[in-house]
Amino acid sequence: MPLLDQAAKWTTNKMPKVITPKAHAIIDYAMAASFFGMAAFFWRRNKRAAVSALVCGAAETITALCTDYPGGVVKEISYETHGTIDFGLSGMVASLPDMLRFADEPESRFFRMQGLGLATVTGLTDFTGSGEGNQLEELDKLSA
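RESULT FIELD:
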């Protein structure tokens, strides 16, 4: 599944960046809420999926709260670094069903789609303020 995340990253990298910092913050909190909601939904059916959803929701919430953008509280993480973290998180989210051995169960689809969605949103977000494509290469240079 991380292959689909890479495809989303590659495809969206060339596109214009249409998601503003404020919209990205709203999407981050909505995604975290969906993880927490699905953790409750999965709890009786699949504990591994439920715990995975809780971990992903916590990771997304903490990252959003600590980012220097509208909606961030502590502002310890730069917006550009947040983008790099989001791409890493998208791969982790999509890989959790394999790592925790529930890849053949229906709950795995939620994590695959969330990972793909997270990669797509991150790829379409304007991290530099220019709105231009190829921002991911700039983020990679900054994090190296």
